Structure formats: structure tokens, C-alpha cells
Amino acid sequence: MGVLSQPEEAVALVKLWVAARKMKRQIPPQEHWTFCYDMLQKVSRSFAFVIQQLGPELRNAVCIFYLVLRAMDTVEDDTSIPAEEKLPILRDFYRNAYDPNWRYSCGTNHFEVLMDKFRYVSMAFLELDHGYQKPIEEITRLMGAGMAKFICQEVETIDDYDEYCHYVSGLVGYGLSRLFHAAGTEDLASDQLSNSMGLFLQKNSIIRDYLEDINEIPKCRMFWPREIWSKYVDKLEGLKYEENSEKAVQCLNDMVTNALIHAEDCLQYMSSVKDNTNFRLCAIPQVTAIGTFAIFYNNVNIFRGAVKMRRGLIARIIDETRSMTDVYSAFYEFSSLLESKINDNDPTAALTRKRVDAIKKTCKSSGLLKRRGYDLEKSKYSSMLIMLALLLVAIIFGVLTPSDSVNMVLVYSK
């Protein structure tokens, strides 16, 4: 085992696999619920895990909330649908949750299946308590209207950017806060803090998806605000060309710096969450986001291909994020790693340092910091070799059977 460079991550992957197997037994046996939880796993593996840790009632409500919004997002994302057809679908999408006969063919892969069999989502929605149905309906209505607005309007200013992110993700924060309150587990959080939780995650996704969005066929999708990118290039697609690499990285750093302004609100929101399963649902994505921002910062590979956090580190975050001590520690360490990459010649370096300092100050003033030792560098050893070694240990100690280990390797290698 001495050759393992990241053994704690491999341990976390094994623990995550074991926990996921146990959670599968909690899924209601009815066909529509089986479909919903299976689909949740396919369209978002990491969110599926934290959602399934919730209590039964809230777990079902959040699962359906997520799938309804993913289905509507599939319509928005499909650039082959003419605007005149897409707009009324988005504006009226909230009605579809009440209609088990509704379906619409669009999207690809798992998302196409979700759209084709949306009746199962509707059937499950209709079984939810009215107190859960109303927030889901209201947020879906508002989000659909906002998505429709930006089908016809480009993201020009930073205000536009914040407004778009509010519609597609800030409202998710509103919805989760309302579902927590409906379950009786939390006080109703402020809209400002709920919104910031969504914006922090959405801006992470928009930065990550630059290349995929700009190369979208038949029509590119552009969510980086002109107010930022026009300082560096004449056209947004110019960022992907190698001759513009220096300017592209400066623009990227500007985008990351813009997102960091939401971090303190996120920390305040999470510190007020009482129920531990609700806390983990909120905290795990946020910790992953601050870590991913540290990976993105000053990283030209954003404009060359997919840039993601390694699976072992994600598994470790899922395993270790259980209290505000863990959150403050992770935000402090990842902010410090981002800070170490700041080039004083970067146009936004001073502002980046200011925002990182504010995050670190908030974390340090909590008095709850402990060392995590997070590392953003890739292991020099094969991740599969590490996984196989830890699986062997797990089998020896009876945590997994040999057949389980084969299944885990197959999933991990996808």
C-alpha cells in the first residue's frame, strides 16, 4: 500500500460505493418511483447520492423537484428546437407536472428517456403532499418564464448574467429552502442567501461548459457576459483559439473572480441549516464548487477540453463533508490553493486576492478550521491501480464481495 499516492480518496470511493448500494434498498418499489430514482442516478450521480440521504418524504419531493427542472432544462438546452416552439413549452412547463399524459421528444441519451417517459415523474409528483407540490410548481413556473426571456435575449451585462443564473439556479435555492421549510426541518432561509447558493453553483457550470456551449450544434450557446469577455477578445468564440491563450486565461480568471463574491453568502446559509441530511445536500455541492473554481483558475485547459475534479477527490468531499467545521476547512484550503495560482500581472489579481481574503477571513474567524490536506494535482499513479488495490483490501475485510468489486470497477471506469 506504500505506492498509493492518494489512498484516502480510494477509501472514500469504496465507502461511497457501499453506501450507494445500501441506499438502493430505500427506493419505493412502484414502477414510477423506480424510474424516477434510476433516472436521478443517470442524470446526476453526485446529486443522486446526497438526495437519497434525506428522510423519505423530503427525499421524494427533492427527487421530483430535480427531475422536473432537469426535464425543463433539457428543452432549454436543445438548440434544434425553433424558438417559436420552445417559448410556449418553457412558459407552460409547470403545468406538465400535473399531466401524466404529457411527453415531448428532445434531448439525447438519458435526457431523451426522461422526456419520453415524463409521465412517471408526473405520477410521482401527484403523490406528493400539497405542501411540496406548490413550491415545485411555483419555482418551475418562474424558472420557465426566465428561461424563455433569455431565449430571446443575450447575456450582455453582469446584471444580465446574475439574472440568468437566478432563473436557472438561484430559484433552485429558493425551492430547496421552501421544501426544507415545508418538511418542518428548517426555518425559511432568506431569498438572498438561497439565491447565492444557486449562483455559486451555476457560475461554476457556465465556466466549465464554455467549450461545449460554444461548439453546440446547430447553434452555439453563450452565457459568459459580454461585459467581461469583451475586455479580452472581439468575439466570445475567440477565447478557444490558441493564439488568444493569454487573454483567454485572463478572461477566465475574471469569470472565477466574479463568482467568488457569492461564497460568503453560501457559508452563511450553510451555517444556519439545522438538519444534518439537509446540510449535506447543500454543503457537498458547494465544497465541490469552491474546489473546482481553484482548478479552473489560471487553467487554459478550460478552452481545450473538459476540466473536472477527479472522482476520488469528489468521493472524499462527499465522505468528509458532515459539519460546518468541514465546510470552513475545505473553503479555506481550496481558497488558499486558488490564491497560490494568482499572477500579480493578471488584470483582476487585486480583486481576486480581496475576495479570497474575505473567504479565508470568514472561515478563520469561525474558529473551526482543521487541516484536510486537499490536493488538486493529478496522482502520478494510475487511479485504476489505486482502486483495484483498495477493492482487494475491501474484499479481504468483507466489506465487498468479488462480484461487487467487479461492478464497482465497471462504474468507476465509465
From TrEMBL:
<feature type="transmembrane region" description="Helical">
    <location>
        <begin position="283"/>
        <end position="303"/>
    </location>
</feature>
<dbReference type="GO" id="GO:0051996">
    <property type="term" value="F:squalene synthase [NAD(P)H] activity"/>
</dbReference>
<dbReference type="InterPro" id="IPR006449">
    <property type="entry name" value="Squal_synth-like"/>
</dbReference>
<dbReference type="Pfam" id="PF00494">
    <property type="entry name" value="SQS_PSY"/>
</dbReference>
<dbReference type="GO" id="GO:0045338">
    <property type="term" value="P:farnesyl diphosphate metabolic process"/>
</dbReference>
<dbReference type="InterPro" id="IPR002060">
    <property type="entry name" value="Squ/phyt_synthse"/>
</dbReference>
<dbReference type="InterPro" id="IPR044844">
    <property type="entry name" value="Trans_IPPS_euk-type"/>
</dbReference>
<keyword id="KW-0472">Membrane</keyword>
<comment type="similarity">
    <text>Belongs to the phytoene/squalene synthase family.</text>
</comment>
<dbReference type="GO" id="GO:0005789">
    <property type="term" value="C:endoplasmic reticulum membrane"/>
</dbReference>
<protein>
    <recommendedName>
        <fullName>Squalene synthase</fullName>
    </recommendedName>
</protein>
<dbReference type="GO" id="GO:0008610">
    <property type="term" value="P:lipid biosynthetic process"/>
</dbReference>
<dbReference type="GO" id="GO:0010287">
    <property type="term" value="C:plastoglobule"/>
</dbReference>
<keyword id="KW-0812">Transmembrane</keyword>
<feature type="transmembrane region" description="Helical">
    <location>
        <begin position="381"/>
        <end position="400"/>
    </location>
</feature>
<dbReference type="InterPro" id="IPR033904">
    <property type="entry name" value="Trans_IPPS_HH"/>
</dbReference>
<dbReference type="InterPro" id="IPR008949">
    <property type="entry name" value="Isoprenoid_synthase_dom_sf"/>
</dbReference>
<keyword id="KW-1133">Transmembrane helix</keyword>
